[in-house]
Structure formats: C-alpha cells, structure tokens
Amino acid sequence: MLGATEGVVGLRRAALAMLAMAAVMAAAASSTAVPSTAVAQRSPATAPEPVSIVVIRAARLIDGRGGEPLAPAMVRVDGDRITAVASSLPIPAAAREIDLGNATLLPGFIDLHTHLTGRSDVHWEDALVKTTPAEEALWGAHWALITLKAGFTTVRDMGCNWPYTDVALRNAIDAGAVPGPRMLVAGAYVSSTGGAGDASQFSPYVQVPLVHNLADGPEEITKAVRTNFKNGADFIKILATGAVLSKGILPGAQQYSEEEMHAAVVEARRWGRDVAAHAHGTEGIKAAIRAGVHTIDHGSGLDDEAVAMLKARPGTYYVPTLALMSANLDEEGSSTIPPAEMERMRTIRAMAEAGFRRALAAGLPIGLGTDAPVIAHGQNAREFRTRVRLGEKPMASLISATRINAEIIHWQERIGTVEVGKLADLVAVPGNPLADITVTERVGFVMKGGFVYRDELATRK
Ligand SMILES: [Zn+2]
To answer: Per the confidence metrics, is the pTM higher than 0.90?
Structure first.
C-alpha cells in the first residue's frame, strides 16, 4: 500500500519542489522590488537619524490591551517611541503624516516559535551535510525580512541547524546591518543523544561536522546551558519529547527525565533566563511543567491534568503551533517532509487541536507560535485563522500574538501594546480583523522602532 502511493508522493514532491522554488524566486523578486533605500538610509548602522516625528492615522486601532478598538485612531511616534495615542491629535509642522485609510492599526505581531535560518526546501537532518553556516546565515537574513514584512516585528527563534547562526543574525539585525524582527535566540538547542534534536542520523561510521548540541544527564545539560549563554543565546531550548519531523522515536515519547529538565531550569535561572521545552507527548509535557520550564512549545498532548498543572503554575505558558498542520496536510505544504513524517503529523493533529480547545475552555493564557519554516516563512499570520477556526475569538488571538507574547518573553515594558512610552512597533491590516481575521495575512504597513519597512496602505502627505 505504501509502495502504491510512493510514486504519487514522489511526483507530488517534485511538483512541490518546483512550486517552492517559484515561491522563493517570487519572494526574492518582491523583496528586491521594495524601495529598500528608505530602510537602508534610515538604518541605525549607517546613519543615525535625528529624532523624527511621524503621525499615523487609521480607521481603527486595536491596541493589544483587549478593550474596544479606538475609532478613528491617531498614533504619534517620536524617534523609536510611541508618544501619543488618541482619536484626534494635532499634527506638528515637522511631522510626516501617514494616512492608512480604512486600515486597522495593531501592535507588531510576535511569533514565539520560528526557525528563521531554516529552509523549507532542506530537511534539517540533511543540513549538516548539504549546507554551510554561511549559507544558513544568509538565508536567515532573507527570511528575517520576509517575516518582518509579514508584520512580525519580534520573534523568539527556536534554533538553527548550525549552532549560533541565530546569534549572528540577531546581532546583525540589532546593529542595523540587515533588516529583520527583534530576535531572542536559542543558540544550540539541547537534545538527548538520539533524541528529537540529534541531527546526526547517519551510519555510526560516517563522520559529520561536530555540532555540540547533545547532552545527557544533569551534568552535561548544565554544561550545555552554560555554553549556550556564553555563546550568546537568550534562552535555552530543550527537546523534552520526540518530534514530528524526525526519525526513530515517536513524537509522544519523553526524551529527557524530569531531573534532566530541572537541571536546565536551575542553571538557566542562575543566569536569569528561561527554558523553552519542545514537547508533544503528555508525560513529557507534565514532566517539563514539574521541572519548571517557562514554555511548553507545541504541547500537542495537553490533557485536563496538564491544563490544571499550567493553571496552578502561571509562570509556565503553553505555546501551540497549529497552522503548520493544515498548511502541510490540507495543502501542498513542504516539499521536503518525508511521507513517514507527514503520517506522524496526521496522527498528532487531532490531539493537538483537542489540546488547544481544552486550553481555550479552561481560559489559559495562550502564546502564539508557528514553527516557520514548517509553515512557510512569511505565512506566520495563518496561525490566527487556524486558531479562530478552532474556537478562539479574533480579539483573543490578536492579544495572544501581541500582549501575551510580550509578557512571555518579559518584554511587556517595551512592546506588545500600542501605548505611550512603548517602542513604535506597529502594523496595519486592510479592513477589520475582528470581522475577518484573515486580513492579518495581508499586512500592508510595518513599522519597527519607528522605521517603516512596508508602506503599501499609506497615502503620504
Ligand atoms: Zn520548532
């Protein structure tokens, strides 16, 4: 039976590879077509600008705090900060005015689960023998801009194939050398030997480049945590259970003991940092919660007991990644996911969607993540549509991607809502996302820290 479908799958994959290539080329063409000079000239690395004043006008503002939209809305930005928000504001003579017409202004979106340096056309287990760190970093810069232009002004990046290319990308973005979202990075994610993050899926006689991301037992894990922070990681990612996109052990299987995970948490806390746990299986999820991790990523097997444990521990958040499943299973999806791993995804899907509904019913605060590029970079906003289909209110999903995500990464003083004093990270979508959540997939205006990266809705004066 498998044999009979293989030919079809092979053909489908060849067609998909071509589609993916076309998409990459189209994306490349569209990113070069953008008047990037405006961005380049305003780049802090090349020319620090004097404080500029921008006044933005839109039909409505959803500020991320959960109240009724402000309509109409005006937001004043001085330099990189929001300095006034009201229905009507005076416009100083020196100000640039941006009129977004019937658009809705929102805080910049935050994605808590990306792999910006990852390519959907290279399976991560092949990356170590088929790619270079330089290649990964350059593609990372490419995807960073695509993600930013999709309205995601901040991402928590959950790891790369070549450790610390994410650190380099974050630093380059922060220095203004390349445009991209604000990034928090995992460095070298920490996996057990043979676990979900062990990319060396080769014969034991095949030498591959050494990637030191494997750690077994509390001592090795403590060392892995220290090494990560020494090398510039912002937080630690551990693989608590198996994964959908890996060989061998099933996604549900626990791969670190509670004691091992606790060792990671204890050491990270000494540095004042968090541990994020990739976890699908129910037992692995519960062990990770008991160990004190900060986020349960994916969280597919979330049952009633796990929900109750999360309720009792407000410092641990659930960050599901749901849109990738419909993107891959219902549509063309990725060209590089082998049939066996697609089958795993099919099995996980019903469980993951039930887990999300359970969390919703319990009123848990829920983070928003996508696992891009498992869903294509730039399509991150499809997570909204998926969650609304599963029963979340549009306003709740928007708050998840903004205020709640900002709280999860402890940046609530800087970003996540449109309020005076916050960084000017703003996006606008055509129409009203409370009436049609899919408008979040057509972001037409992006400002990050006062710099405009996308400006397709505005009529400038
Ligand atoms: Zn991931």
So the answer is: no
